[in-house]
Amino acid sequence: MPSNNLVSKLVAGTAEMNVSPPLGAPLLGTIQRSEGVHDDLIARALVLNDGRRRVAIVCFDLIGMDPRLLLLAERADGAKFSMVNFIRDQPALCRVIVCKTDFPWLKRYAPLIRPNSVAQKEGVAGYELALNYNGLPFELIPRAASEIKGKSKYQLLSVNEAEQKKNPCRKLVTQKGSRWELTTRGENLLDLLTY
Prior knowledge:
Blueprint: E1 11-18, E2 26-27, E3 32-33, E4 42-49, E5 54-59, H1 67-77, H2 83-88, E6 94-98, H3 104-108, H4 117-122, E7 126-131, E8 137-143, E9 154-159, H5 161-166, E10 173-176, E11 179-182, H6 184-193
Antiparallel strand pairs: 1-4, 2-3, 4-5, 6-7, 6-9, 7-8, 10-11
């Protein structure tokens, strides 16, 4: 029979939440939109506490984000952790000008829009998007016509070559000689984001 000082009480708690995207919402894992819900996307959590330690196991879909990095940042920042700041602090794969001024991403993720005094003064003619390696826009900067060179629908401004080498899997950009270009896959993603 074990001694009383070795026996501890284990307390467990669970929770779950439906995180399914609404009908018509962009789905970043693939180039498509939500056409309805076949199976709900559920975030689930299990918390175990033995009086000395508390452990949480959380399972959820973070389309476009690395959950390991998110959890490490949350642990390091503690109560000061901000999801918006975590998203904004990601390394950019590339920056793209989108010559469109009204698309759902702007309304849905307004906290990711950074102010630009030139566009405030002259009017917004498009947006500069910073995309992570999964194609998730995490920073949107309004741009005036005077800040946009050219008239094409999408203009690739820059590519972070180190990030592209580290995470080439989505194939959103390609290098042809010394010049970088959006791939068809990259253009399709931008079409979806700006529908």
